[in-house]
Design brief:
CATH architecture of the largest domain: 3-Layer(aba) Sandwich
CATH topology of the largest domain: Rossmann fold
Distance between the termini: 18 Å
Radius of gyration: 20 Å
Oligomer: single chain
Number of strands: 18
Order of helices and strands: EEEEEHEEHEHEHEHEEEHEEHEEE
Shape: globular
Number of domains: 3
Largest sheet: 5 strands, parallel
Bound molecules: FE2/S2 (inorganic) cluster
Helix content: 10-25%
Number of helices: 7
Length: 313
């Protein structure tokens, strides 16, 4: 990855399980970013890995980046590592990438977040409000205590609605999405079941597919997977992919230049052709019909059912 080295200068506990990290550059200027961007953080554990996190600072300033990180129950070590570092720690980052960009022609934005899914939407708010474009933010969390950026969001008044499950408040996608002006774009950063409900409601109400955008988050538990071998067809190199690493991480560890963006199976940037072997598709990018073709894999998340996969690299 094109590397940036940063130092942690501030850590704030936003909720019992979410911390915000403020990062400044150690060796010059930080790369600029667009709202909705994420970046890869190198986790310097014994088995080096990269985790992607959304930026939640304002894209209008690049003196610092803010990242908010949930201490994940499915952690492969990355969020645990970040939750125990202190100010002064140096980290290596990739350059910002965006697979959840704001459509600049939207007449109105409906932003829907669940839990830690609020992070990319925070960077969007800086831009949407500066351009004075109408918006609504609907944010589902367990309780006010578990709601990151709760106080920050109060400034937007009744344009922000909270749904606390502990109080029995449920977000109703149909109610939110109906009677919105033509040209409304919807941005979803919610768990999968709510995402499907929102997409279903949008489709039933006649929203074009291109007006409904989603960002993925959350780790896939890797301890239920089997190791396999990736055979690179062009060089005949054999790469072992252990149970606790993704194919993308195994390729990177072997020094192979591999494309990626979201690292969560949602954008298609890491796609590689599969020549032989059976794929265990774990992404939410391909349709069931595309998955059944068994000829392309997203290396950041999907694995092999067979002992080996021959891939077009
Ligand atoms: S990097 Fe986005 S799907 Fe793999």
């Amino acid at each position: 990855m094109n590397e940036q080295v940063v130092r942690v200068v501030e850590i704030e506990k936003l909720t019992p399980r979410i911390k915000r990290f403020r990062l400044v550059s150690v060796n010059g200027k930080l790369a600029s970013f667009s709202p909705g961007s994420h970046l890869a953080v190198e986790i310097p554990l014994a088995k080096r890995q990269y985790n992607s996190y959304s930026l939640c600072s304002s894209p209008y300033q690049t003196n610092f980046y803010d990242l908010a990180v949930l201490l994940s129950e499915n952690s492969r070590g990355g969020s645990e590592y970040l939750h125990q570092i202190t100010t002064g720690t140096e980290l290596k980052l990739g350059l910002p990438k965006n697979s959840f960009a704001l459509n600049s022609l939207a007449r109105k934005y409906i932003l829907i977040a669940g839990g830690i899914g609020i992070t990319p939407l925070i960077s969007m708010l800086f831009v949407i409000t500066r351009h004075q474009i109408p918006f609504e933010l609907h944010y589902a969390a367990k309780s006010p205590t578990e709601c990151a950026f709760y106080r920050f969001l109060q400034q937007y008044g009744d344009r922000v609605k909270f749904y606390f499950s502990e109080r029995g408040n449920r977000l109703n996608p149909k109610q939110i999405l109906q009677e919105q002006p033509l040209g409304t774009h919807v941005y979803l950063c919610v768990p999968q079941s709510l995402r499907e409900d929102c997409r279903g409601a949008a489709s039933a109400l006649g929203y074009p597919k291109s007006a409904v955008h989603r960002e993925l988050f959350g780790a896939v538990k890797t301890n239920k997977f089997k190791p396999f071998t990736a055979v690179l067809a062009r060089s005949e190199q054999r790469i072992d992919v252990p149970q606790d690493k993704t194919l993308l991480e195994a390729l990177e560890a072997a020094g192979i230049k591999a494309n990626y963006s979201c690292r969560a199976g949602g954008c298609g940037a890491c796609e590689v052709k599969v020549i032989e072997g059976e794929i265990n598709h774990l992404d939410s990018y391909y349709s069931p019909a595309e998955k059944a073709e068994q000829n392309r894999i997203l290396t950041c998340i999907s694995r092999a059912k067979s002992k080996q996969l021959v891939i077009d690299l």
